[in-house]
Design a protein that fits this description.
Length: 285
């Protein structure tokens, strides 16, 4: 499984699972008191988004058919009940932001124009704010649950970015600096200013991939092309090399995720062999 394939699989799974878990009836008001389980028999206003009640075995029909090679990578839920935001291209009108106030039973398009480079941009959200960002881009969009969109200049081009689940203005980023390793950065004002924190893991084969925990930004994984991963629990002041990759002699860390419990971690690792021939299949740990 390639990294791109895994990312698309994760995005699809997260999107489907998020709509099923958060839910919301098609007739629910925009300011419902709590999230509700969806009861609509079709999803309106989109070709790309749906929900499931049986772990993906069946999906609620959509108003429009999704055409090949069109993707919606960005999907986020807000604290406001039943409010969702999505960023993608479902093949009908190009890249656009869509908002739902009934947990995904119907979608409307926001008027904001989004740079075409954000066609595969993820959304990072906390409370009632979401951020659309791209690796190696200083441009970022801030989107509120009310549908307000602001364009921001980060002044740094991050390789990774995460928002604090308890504070939408608290961001943590990582920037890969080649032979100088990784640099972690912290912002307390929504990305307007940044402070360098921590140090780089002692690894000459670091990948430009860092995974943060949304419930504790000091907990992060830095992936390595030859050591699998390094983990920090104090914002990069100290790093520990991850172990437990079985018989993989040269574990090549490719992608990963830290669960909301702060303890469950998924890591995609591939054997990076120096011998001729194809690499060994990837494994998830």
């Amino acid at each position: 499984m390639s990294q791109t394939t895994m990312q698309r699989w994760l995005a699809a799974g997260i999107a489907t699972g998020l709509l099923a878990a958060c839910g919301g009836g098609g007739d629910s008001p925009a300011r419902a008191a709590a999230w509700e389980t969806p009861s609509c028999t079709s999803v309106l206003g989109t070709a790309a988004l749906t929900y499931t009640r049986d772990h993906g075995q069946t999906r609620t029909p959509r108003q429009f058919e999704l055409t090949p090679n069109h993707y919606t990578f960005g999907l986020a839920a807000f604290t406001d009940p039943n409010v969702l935001i999505a960023l993608g291209d479902d093949g009908r009108a190009g890249l656009r932001l869509q908002r739902s106030t009934d947990a995904g039973c119907s979608w409307s398009t926001l008027s904001a124009v989004i740079d075409a480079r954000f066609a595969i941009a993820p959304l990072e959200a906390a409370q009632n704010v979401a951020y659309a960002w791209m690796r190696n881009e200083t441009l970022m969009y801030r989107i509120t649950s009310e549908g307000q969109v602001a364009q921001l200049d980060l002044r740094v081009a991050p390789d990774a970015l995460k928002v604090d689940a308890q504070d939408a203005n608290h961001l943590r980023a990582a920037r890969f600096r080649g032979n100088q390793g990784l640099q972690l950065l912290d912002s307390r004002d929504g990305g307007a200013t940044w402070t360098e924190i921590g140090r780089s893991p002692p690894d000459a084969d670091l990948q430009p991939v860092v995974v943060f925990s949304g419930t504790n930004l000091d907990h992060a994984l830095a992936l390595s092309a030859r050591s699998g991963a390094w983990v920090t629990f104090d914002g990069g002041n100290q790093w520990l090399q991850s172990t437990g990759f079985g018989d993989l002699q040269v574990p090549n860390g490719r992608s990963g995720a830290i669960g909301v419990d702060g303890q469950t971690v998924l890591l995609l690792v591939q054997e990076r062999s120096s011998l001729p021939g194809p690499a060994r299949p990837s494994g998830v740990y």
